[in-house]
């Protein structure tokens, strides 16, 4: 059987499975009850079950494919902001004016919408903010504003990709660090880290923090606009529901961040210098269905190794080059919420990774505690 033309919709169709969640929002909003359970059920449990049936996809596309061949792959990320915008704000108006949803049903609905905006929206924003076109970057900014996490763009591009698996990166989870401790640490440290990164760039260009080029003013304006719209459409209840879905989305993002780099560290070369980022510094997962839903985010080793590579072209690696997760992200993030269970599953894998790639390092205590020197250029 011949392979589908990469320019055709069938080649990209599996990556459109996220769009199924939009009618699920409509069902939950109009019918109430427990219909909201369809959203996490689809994104988390059905996808995990499909992973079990479909197994791994270890095929690698041609990384040199032309941009023109990826029209339908790009299209799903570009249409997502208007879809998510309508899902969030349409549901705010419907829930606060329809009179048919109880308080608990409203919370259930917006928990489900948070699953949508976190599982899909932030993942798509991540893909878009890595691109060079103005349209894609703006769509990424707008998606992040709908979950009140706009600083993620700066933190991800200027800090995480440069300093992943070093003490400078707040979202590189340390060995034996439970998710809840990690989560509150990231909420404290990431906005400050992002602000410092932008202000350092402005200072090097001899510009003030008040300069219009400081993206934090855009971040603030977009987020305030989203909050104001929620208030206008749904009053105080609408505003609270909007903030609740944003929290659910952020929770999922940081669960994913936790899984992606847990316990993995770059070798300290002395004097604040660290080895170059390699595929072995991110957990890789080749599970088929969850990579469809998350547009190959689980090919995370290649994303960090080649961050400019678009999602359809990301490569997967075998265990000789990158550590492998036993399950896809939807299942692993569930495990991460139970720290003793997580440590039982993952700590032996981290120790095996250390023996495989760094057999000469005997004392890991400074790595475990995050006490190594900050990278020199990040001081």
UniProtKB/TrEMBL annotation:
Protein's GO biological process: lipid metabolic process
Transmembrane segments: 12-29, 75-95, 107-125, 216-248
Source domain of life: Bacteria
Key word Iron present: yes
GO MF term list: metal ion binding; monooxygenase activity
A single Gene Ontology CC term: plasma membrane
Membrane topology recorded in Swiss-Prot or TrEMBL: Multi-pass membrane protein
Localization per Swiss-Prot or TrEMBL: Cell inner membrane
Domain called Fatty acid desaturase: residue spans: 109-334
Keywords assigned: Cell inner membrane, Cell membrane, Iron, Membrane, Metal-binding, Monooxygenase, Oxidoreductase, Transmembrane, Transmembrane helix
Iron-sulfur as UniProt keyword: no
Pfam families, per database record: FA_desaturase
Similarity annotation: Belongs to the fatty acid desaturase type 1 family. AlkB subfamily.
Name this protein carries in UniProt: Alkane 1-monooxygenase
């Amino acid at each position: 059987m011949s392979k589908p033309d990469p320019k055709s919709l069938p080649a990209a169709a599996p990556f459109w499975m996220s769009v199924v969640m939009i009618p699920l929002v409509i069902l939950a909003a109009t019918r109430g009850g427990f219909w909201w359970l369809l959203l996490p059920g689809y994104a988390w449990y059905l996808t995990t079950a499909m992973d079990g049936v479909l197994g791994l996809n270890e095929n690698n596309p041609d990384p040199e494919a032309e941009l023109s061949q990826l029209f339908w792959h790009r299209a799903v990320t570009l249409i997502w902001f208007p879809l998510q915008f309508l899902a969030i704000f349409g549901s705010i108006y419907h829930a606060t004016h329809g009179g048919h949803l109880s308080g608990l049903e409203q919370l259930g609905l917006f928990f489900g919408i948070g699953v949508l905006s976190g599982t899909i929206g932030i993942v798509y924003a991540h893909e878009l903010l890595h691109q060079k076109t103005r349209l894609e970057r703006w769509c990424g900014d707008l998606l992040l504003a709908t979950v009140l996490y706009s600083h993620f763009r700066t933190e991800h591009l200027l800090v995480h990709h440069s300093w992943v698996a070093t003490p400078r990166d707040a979202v590189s989870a340390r060995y034996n660090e439970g998710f809840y401790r990690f989560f509150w640490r990231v909420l404290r440290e990431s906005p400050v880290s992002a602000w410092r990164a932008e202000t350092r760039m402005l200072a090097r260009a001899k510009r003030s923090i008040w300069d219009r080029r400081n993206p934090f003013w855009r971040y603030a304006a977009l987020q305030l606009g989203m909050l104001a719209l929620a208030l206008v459409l749904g009053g105080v209840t609408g505003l609270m529901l909007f903030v609740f879905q944003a929290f659910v989305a952020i929770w999922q993002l940081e669960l994913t961040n936790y899984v992606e780099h847990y316990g993995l560290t770059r070798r300290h070369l002395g004097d604040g210098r660290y080895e170059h980022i390699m595929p072995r510094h991110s957990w890789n997962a080749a599970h088929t269905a969850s990579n469809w839903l998350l547009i190959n985010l689980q090919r995370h080793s290649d994303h960090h190794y080649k961050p400019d590579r678009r999602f359809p072209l990301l490569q997967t690696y075998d265990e000789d080059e990158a550590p492998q997760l036993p399950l896809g992200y939807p299942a692993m993030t569930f495990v991460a919420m139970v720290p003793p269970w997580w440590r039982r599953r993952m700590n032996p894998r981290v120790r095996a990774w250390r023996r495989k790639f760094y057999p000469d390092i005997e004392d890991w205590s400074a790595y475990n505690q995050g006490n190594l020197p900050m990278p020199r250029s990040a001081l």
